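Have a think about this chain, tokens included, and walk me through the fold.
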Amino acid sequence: MLNTSLAAASTGSELAAASTGSELAGQLDRGRPVPTEAAGVYLFPQSFEDIVGALRVGIGRLAEPGRYRAMAIPPVISRAMIERAGYVSAFPQLLGTVHSYAGDARSWAKLSPLVAAGGDWHADQQVSDLVLLPATCYPVYAGLAGAELVDPVRFAVSGTCFRQEATSEPGRLRSFRMAEYVTAGPEAHCLAWRAEWLDTAGDWLTGLGLEVAVEVADDPFFGPARKLYQAAQRSQELKLELKVAVDPDKVQAVASANYHKDHFGEGFDFRFAGALGHTACMAFGLERIALALITRHGERLAGWPPDVRRLLDH
């Protein structure tokens, strides 16, 4: 059933039908994400948002009170910052840039008829100083630029992210929400912190009634050195994913525990006790966890087992 609603064929006629008032209302009433004419972008009904809201509460309760500085991240961030972070070099195929028209009214008068005609009205768009946020942790590292850390720091961040995914299978969204815990400090701290969070997240997901598998993973690096980078990442176990079924026929990572070594410490020149700072993060994909819970327990949060709802403070 989830395949039908989430991976619906994206032809113009079907999506136009989904946009009619009665059809749209019916799809929203079923409690599942509704596809739009943009692949990997969905409309979310209130019942789904109730689950996402409960997940935010549940994830927020996993952290020790008072240990994390909370921060909401905007959906756009500095292009210069993401360049400095190394994201453009590693994942250019995933990055969404923000372009806008910088010409005058006379030039636009020549382009504007192309909007209705379906032509290249955007031909004179120029890249701006912004990009779409690819992950919520990057502004944390930029905020530490030049710092000399006395003690490890910890942040709880959340935001709406974008990645230009090549597929639109269930759960693989281009626009998605992420909740993340981030730390910076010495190597030993970051490794211990990540190990603790991996256990905490795994126990929490299991408590929600999900069957969790922890696997060594790699990121989708781009270019001729891709396999070399991925092999190095796997051999050092820098990325560990927690995978569950987001659909009866599809298992995906819903959370990941990552250790970056001193990559961001070097890129943003922050240090701990004179040495480059190390970082780690624990990321949760809210839509994917919601889909997994719907697959396991149904569309309505109120009908879920009491033990599950208790972990979500609901």
